[in-house]
Design brief:
Elements (H helix, E strand, L loop, with lengths): L8 E4 L5 E8 L11 E5 L5 E5 L3 H4 E4 L2 H5 L12 H17 L3 H15 L7
Helix pairs in contact: 3-4
């Protein structure tokens, strides 16, 4: 089984308690159903088996991607610089779509931007 670059972490929507989802069944994607259930392990290590919950409605996804990308966001001084915006967009796409580590994605984006920029503007 392939491991995700950004494993999903969940929180209960009502309490914000972090949980580990073990299994779930959803009858209709995006809608509640009487037959929906979720099995999860709570923060105290207690396993909740087939709780009458819906994964999409009762849980929030915590993704580390947003916090990791903050270090590469355009600064206030450069937010209107089209090259910096392109660089950020390329890094984001490489990390999400291709699973490339952030540092390598930044290096690749810098090389591509440098090759596209007019010679007097190069980074």
């Amino acid at each position: 089984m392939e491991q995700s670059l950004f494993p999903l972490k969940y929180r209960l929507r009502k309490t914000s308690e972090p949980v580990e989802i073990v299994a779930w069944e959803t009858a209709e994607k995006g809608a509640r159903s009487e037959s929906d259930w979720v099995s999860y392990i709570d923060s105290a290590g207690v396993e909740h088996i087939k709780e009458h919950l819906t994964l999409e409605w009762d849980f929030l996804v915590d993704s580390p991607f947003e916090s990791m990308m903050k270090q590469f966001e355009p600064t206030k001084f450069s937010e209107y610089d089209p090259w910096e915006v392109r660089r950020y967009d390329m890094v984001q796409r490489q990390v999400i779509d291709k699973g490339i580590c952030i540092q390598l994605a930044v290096e690749c984006a810098d090389k591509i931007i440098s090759s596209l920029m007019p010679k007097e503007e190069s980074i």
